[in-house]
User: Fold this.
Amino acid sequence: MENSVAGFPKRTVTCGELRGVDADRSIVLNGWVDTVRDHGGLLFLDVRDRFGVTQVVVDPDEVGEELLATARKVKPEWVVAIGGTVRLRPGETRNAELATGEVEVKVHGLDVLN
Assistant:
């Protein structure tokens, strides 16, 4: 992944800071996987750190086989680095309960750190 320090993908934002104004921004998140949901091939990971939670989307039509295979293996409490692009969630899927509920991160890179 770009933006790495000695092979370790350095975060550019925390899991609690992304908002709608960040749409189209390329970012790197580091955190723990909180939950993993498979919606018919489309994977959703909730990634958390001490600052909050961000929803991450892995679309099998937009990522390579290796990234998809890694994403399918990820379990809760694994530590990951996510490279991706912030995008607005469609209106009906926004989560007013979360500070970051207006956005999600479309994955283009995923490294398992631990």
